Amino acid sequence: MEGIALVSGGKDSVYAMYIALQQGIDIKKIVNIIPEEFSFMYHFPNTHIVKLISEAVQIDLDQYKISDDPDELKNILKNYEEKVIVSGAIESEYQKTRLERISTELNKIHYSPLWRKDPFLLLNDLLLSNFKAIFVSVSAEGLDEKFLGLEIDNGIINKLKFLKEKYGIHPSGEGGEYETLVLDCPIFKKRIKILKSEILKNGNYGILEIYDAKLDEKNK
To answer: 134-216 adopts what CATH topology?
Structure first.
């Protein structure tokens, strides 16, 4: 069955695409949504890097700049002939409900392989699958700019467990506590190497702004 993958560049959407490919869904296109402003629906830091992800997995990319109005997303997705729409939704009913409704109206299937998975099990699965993902934004008590640029590993997972117990953050960042960027994973032919970046901070919100990056051979 053919499909398209909604990919933000973060760990969840890339991992969902990875699972879909493993399960035999033929992903014909990566679709990246660039929100017009801060969004509850879409990931927004460093969306320009998704072009490198597209090149790394050798799947063509379409990018669109839209608002959170679901009709705008529906008008985009109706132009694709592929039957399956893959997303990395985990616990956001806001995202899931919208995508389910749009898919039903377009006679398509919304496939969300990460839905309702235990967040810590999911983070461990990412590591076991050799995903290299870094923090590119933080916006929660206990998560400061020191996390920006750090790769998710077992030590980070333990810190997230502590922060969940102390502050109640969602371990996968489903409440907007943090966002990530995948630099490498098994479906990448090459890895992403960041050449120039800067940490920007505004109150409790911090972002790793990436100005320049390239694809590099994995053995380097």
So the answer is: putative n-type atp pyrophosphatase, domain 2 (3.90.1490)
